[in-house]
């Protein structure tokens, strides 16, 4: 019998959960605290967004809403766009991505490498303008918007995969889950799962301080708050500054050998702040993507 080989989409998920060794001080470790990093940068297109990208496309196909050859449109700050570009290439769609012009050049180049078409919007309009333009194009019949911000298949895949993986890999010992908050699909889906099996788990979201621009972390105006966001499952919101997130990204690389993106570093800042005030805690944070996606930003010295 011929061996059965996986396809690229078959290897999305089941990412490693690794223990930080040097950032957690001996004093905090002696109190029984452990900080674990979920390495979502190990997904094929390099981020946690691979999960909802393939989920949104496959489930829309199953419902008969789209078929290969159709045009898909999405507003994105980067990682979802890259993941959707990959998923569209795998499953045979034309992908049009709308993103603010000030996002890192590596992200734009990666989207184009997968065959996606890019529309850049003014920095001053932010993601809000990009989202409005995507909806306008859909109304004009130029394609279908999957809408990561309102699509239930986004948090659903984290309920079905990311949450159970964390639960299994910690053998149920997890006490705190920390995630950067952007689209909010990850924190919403994982929260629903973890709260269903262990209601006392603390779910903590990382948001940017006023004036901070941290790729992948957003504090949305009320009118643009993602429809998928479920605040009932979030126990605490912690503000992170751009400077501390960028400094933590450099520390993760130098002290842990973990080359992570800036939003992941922001979540790590929050995980460490929790470790300073608790004991016997198993704290998991999501490493949304890898640091090589941010080289042109100057965060990592040349």
UniProtKB/TrEMBL annotation:
Gene3D superfamilies: 3.40.50.1100. One of its GO terms (molecular function) is cysteine synthase activity. It comes from the Bacteria. Keywords: Amino-acid biosynthesis, Cysteine biosynthesis, Pyridoxal phosphate, Transferase. SUPFAM superfamilies: Tryptophan synthase beta subunit-like PLP-dependent enzymes. Pyridoxal 5'-phosphate binds at residues 79, 182-186, 263. GO terms for biological process: cysteine biosynthetic process from serine. Residues 9-289 form the Tryptophan synthase beta chain-like PALP domain. Its cofactor is pyridoxal 5'-phosphate. Pfam families: PALP. The modification N6-(pyridoxal phosphate)lysine is found at residue 49. It is an enzyme of class 2 (transferase). Pathway: Amino-acid biosynthesis; L-cysteine biosynthesis; L-cysteine from L-serine: step 2/2. Its EC number is 2.5.1.47. It catalyses: O-acetyl-L-serine + hydrogen sulfide = L-cysteine + acetate. Belongs to the cysteine synthase/cystathionine beta-synthase family. This is Cysteine synthase.
């Amino acid at each position: 019998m011929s061996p059965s080989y996986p396809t690229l989409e078959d290897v999305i998920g089941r990412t490693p959960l690794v223990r930080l060794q040097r950032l957690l001080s001996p004093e905090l470790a002696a109190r029984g605290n452990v900080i674990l990093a979920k390495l979502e940068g190990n997904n094929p297109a390099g981020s946690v967004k691979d999960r909802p990208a393939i989920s949104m496309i496959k489930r829309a196909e199953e419902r008969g809403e789209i078929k290969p050859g159709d045009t898909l449109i999405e507003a994105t700050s980067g990682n979802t766009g890259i993941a959707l570009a990959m998923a569209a290439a795998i499953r045979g769609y034309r992908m049009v991505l709308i993103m603010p012009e000030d996002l890192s050049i590596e992200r734009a180049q990666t989207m184009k490498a997968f065959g996606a078409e890019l529309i850049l919007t003014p920095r001053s309009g932010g993601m809000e303008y990009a989202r409005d333009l995507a909806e306008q194009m859909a109304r004009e019949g130029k394609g279908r918007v999957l809408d990561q911000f309102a699509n239930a298949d986004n948090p659903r895949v984290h309920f079905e995969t990311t949450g159970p993986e964390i639960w299994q890999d910690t053998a149920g010992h997890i006490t705190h889950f920390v995630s950067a908050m952007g689209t909010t699909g990850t924190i919403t889906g994982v929260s629903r799962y973890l709260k269903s099996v262990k209601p006392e788990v603390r779910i903590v979201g990382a948001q940017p301080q006023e004036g901070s621009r941290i790729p992948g972390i957003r504090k949305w105006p009320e009118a643009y708050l993602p429809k998928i966001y479920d605040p009932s499952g979030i126990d605490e919101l912690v503000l992170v500054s751009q400077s501390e997130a960028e400094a933590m990204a450099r520390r993760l690389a130098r002290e842990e050998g973990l080359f992570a993106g800036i939003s992941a570093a922001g979540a790590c800042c929050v995980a460490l702040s929790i470790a300073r005030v608790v004991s016997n805690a198993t704290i998991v944070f999501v490493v949304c993507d890898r640091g090589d996606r941010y080289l042109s930003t100057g965060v990592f010295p040349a």
